[in-house]
Give the backbone structure.
Amino acid sequence: MNAGKPWQEMGLTDDEYRQIVEIMGREPNRVELGMFAVMWSEHCGYKSSRPLLKYFPTSGPRVLQGPGENAGIVDIGDGQALVFKIESHNHPSAIEPYQGAATGVGGIVRDIFTMGARPIALLNSLRFGPLDDDWNRYLFSKVVAGIGDYGNCLGIPTVAGEVYFHPSYKDNPLVNAMCVGLVATDEIARAVAGEVGRPLLLVGARTGRDGIHGATFASEELSAESETRRPAVQVGDPFMEKLLLEACLELIKEDLAAGMQDLGAAGLTSSVAESASRGGRGAVIDVLKVPRREAGMTPYEVMLSESQERMLVVPREGAVKRIQEIFEKWGLEAAVIGHITDDGILRVMEGEEIAGEVPVKALTDLCPVYHRESSQPDYIAEKKNFDLSSIAEAGDYNRILRELLGIHSLSSKEWVYRQYDYQVQTNTVLVPGDADAAVLRIKGTTKGVAVTVDCNSRYCYLDPYQGGMMAVCEAARNLACTGARPLAVTNCLNFGNPEKPGVYWQMEQAIKGMAEAARVLNTPIVSGNVSLYNETRGGEAVLPTPVVGMVGLLPDVTRRVDMALKNEGDVLILLGENRDGIGGSEYLALVHGVEAGTLPEIDPAQESRLIELLLTLAERGKLKSCHDISEGGLAFCLAESCITGGIGAVVDITGLRGRLDGLLFGEGPSRAVASVSRSDVDTVLEMAEKGQVPAVVIGRVEGKRLRLVYGGRTLIDQDVNELSAIWRGAITWAMS
Amino acid sequence: MRFGIVVFPGSNCDADCYHVIDQVLGQPVEYIWHQEKSVRGFDALIIPGGFSYGDYLRTGAIARFSPVMQEVIEFAHRGGLVIGICNGFQILLEAGLLPGAMLRNDSLQFRCGPVNLRVKTRDSAFTRCFEPDEVITLPIAHGEGNYYCDDETLKELIEFDQIALTYCDERGEETPLSNPNGSTANIAGILNRGRNVLGMMPHPERMAEKLLGGEDGLRVFASMLRCFEEGCS
Amino acid sequence: MFLGKVYVTLKKSVLDPQGDTVRKSLHTLGYTQVTDVRIGKYIEVGLDSPTPEDARRELDEMCARLLANPVIEEYRLEIVKDE
Amino acid sequence: MFLGKVYVTLKKSVLDPQGDTVRKSLHTLGYTQVTDVRIGKYIEVGLDSPTPEDARRELDEMCARLLANPVIEEYRLEIVKDE
Ligand SMILES: Nc1ncnc2c1ncn2[C@@H]1O[C@H](COP(=O)(O)OP(=O)(O)O)[C@@H](O)[C@H]1O
Ligand SMILES: [Mg+2]
């Protein structure tokens, strides 16, 4: 192929190669070139996304660590902090869904405990092609099993997530995993190199040939060719990870490590370079000292292997012996593979031979940055101009609601989360399916933490700026519905090929929208991950999918709110301004087969007022239930609250303005439905008025049916048990 | 009453059990590392859930060779109270303290969620705080909870009243639909002949506080405490 | 150096949910000639034993103690010379 | 009636955490002569095929499609006559 230009095979351009030669002052050898290739890959170097990420607000009074470390950290008072991050494992999961998803979980968990935090929750955000296809069902079931088996074995509860199905994800599923950890603020471990001469300890699994060039692989479009030249698939060993986790947390408790760095993408190369570069130091390592799983591995392979469940530790002065003891207790091998130097060079030895020498900073800081061409793709205007008034309004609303409940993207995800241990660690107060976000208590305090992931990618496709705002607003709203104050954001930007101007534009717009919403809502973006080149075989980009993960705080966890209707006679109140919002809705896609239209306007300031109101109401114990309105609209929201409560409701929407289908199924943002006891109605309405949030009583909890009435006409009248069967059974049925 | 919680590499419900005994039941409790060669000084032992040795080969198969297990076995033979929960149950089966074996769930999937259970006997150190045939709710979380034993063994389990808990519906009927894993005779928990060893798949420690949805699980530990205070063997 | 091969199968009397599921899905794929599927383990053990007889005896003991569970499983083993 | 025997093993380069853990525990039990353990699957498939050649061809196809995962596994098969 490119016998004369080996860099091309490694994913580097001719121009990048020239820069490398310039930096080195000579032609790099194969080992050196390989190290550059992985460190300068999109995955590690963020060369297309870096110029855009600077739009994100990243600081705030609670932020202890923004982007740049293994994970972001926010203060939650009492000397405690949350450490969290989301990461993609899309391409590995497309090739080997079970191991791809499992190792994705393993990787994100290491990011969290590397910082000294005990992981307390896992979340995941998943996208697949439709379930009427065998291959998609295979991917879906294996990904879910992989995520479950890994997290279950570690004893970290998987408490929330989202799953959507859309044809654009057919060849390229999205698998994003998020982990949240809890740390005492005085035990936060940051990667510092330590002093010159300090040994470098490699701990955990032995190094094999797996995943060589995984980082460059993640930076390419998938093709039939990439399937054949793909690296040997990484296999996860959650048991090893559990031992590593416990051992590393013990090291940090005893303050034995000056620095710790997990081995993720780009393996040893990246972790050694990063450990050394932080202190402006260099490092020398001997590949012969790296414990191997396979005979005959070359320095190139050792440096680039992405074998999982490994960790690099720089000990504190005199701590090596105690560290070895701890690892031994956990049955782990720790090998001294080199030490820190003062010359700023990463020197790879194979015994006495020098296998490669590269300036550390060249790997970590000199990766080129590309301001790619950006232009609005043609489809945008066309979709936006779609005339919604051309859509017939009349319809059998009973049938439409039932069909919406059966759409796999909207139906119950119990088939998924029943495969996840969501209760281990005995902190999960609101479990999956209970509410818009999961809520965990923090033992020894009155506090609770709420967590969620969100992204409506159809919205992001039709209008990435609005869609980006929406993802942040919806995540914040989901937290607020449980009574938790949104604190901060992590995000995973899943897009197509950034070298295509239209894709780059989508990303740029989505980022700006997310940034704007995060600024207004005071939820800084403290960590994240970028996954590009997500495309089908035919070269179509996936729907732009900037997944937002968010954490929130409840001062008093006993005040948490779930979404189930509770008692007969409770009053239903619609909070937030009613807008029809059919553009880009599920209803439009389902009934009219159209993914188009102008999206309902979203105003983060308005969202913020709704959130403040929800928090005050929850804190005063006024909410018996609360559920936000999102996909499927008001009718769907009510149906879900009826189903989870096992009770009916009578709702009269005569007072609301707009077309009927819009009132029922429109997805206008910044709205929620609360149920409150009769005696609290006046107070709640008053508080809403004070908070400048429109609020209207729309009905009451009653009986076993959901009835929606408009102007004396019954639009919907359904038995809750029947709705429940459709909603709960949809995915299970598709999977059996 | 002093509780000991045995910790294997890969145990992950050890801290949850500790929390319940310490904070909710208010009794002294300590971890026992799997390398320990003595369990002296403890009044009851908990073999907690998790994935000892990654559940590799067979659940519980490797853990049962840990040095501490010999001590656990002798402790049980002396009449000491031993409860194995989930992976703990699997370990007790492999160790031969309880009859039978565990197969993969018939769904071939991990199952997490609340189940209804019928308390089949009050005549044990672990169930005396329940009513006879009471229906309770506890969560399960396992991939291999499909209890298997041959007909002979099953007959004996019934004859000697060793079945402690079965999966059932809300009314207490042991229906196939209420069986989450394909377990023989809907078995969720069994006792040894001496009635001082219990293995159960559901997690009582996860249902020991109102905040987490109920207190049925606490009554398992409360039963042990009552037994101890009333001077049962 | 010897290579021990261990075949662990579920006893005939024990239900094999995994095998049943695989059989059903083979039928769905059109392989209706499949009458039965049983899934067991195949374990390869490298043995540094002096003689094949030693290797066999030792491996048999490992099977009885750890590799198979006699309540539900049976096993069979082979020893081959390994270079 | 034929009996197909399928041996599914992880490719050599693929990590076998299960095998490693079992090897360590055999060492702890004193079987230090064990150099390596790899754990795979052993699948028995009953086949109602007209000839052994048919049985082999069909089973091979089933392996490629379902019984083995070509990304990480290899397989080998045998056909024997079954009564
Ligand atoms: N992949 C998943 N993993 C764990 N829980 C999930 C997953 N997908 C959905 N859930 C849970 O199912 C419930 C409903 O999800 P979803 O319909 O996406 O909620 P919402 O629209 O309110 O964001 C939530 O509790 C969510 O956390
Ligand atoms: Mg929601």
User: Anything to note?
Assistant: Residues 3-229 of chain B form a domain with the Rossmann fold fold (CATH 3.40.50.880). The mean pLDDT of chain B is 97. Residues A 436, 478, 628, 630 surround magnesium ion (ligand 2) (CB under 6 Å). DSSP finds five helices and eleven strands in chain B.
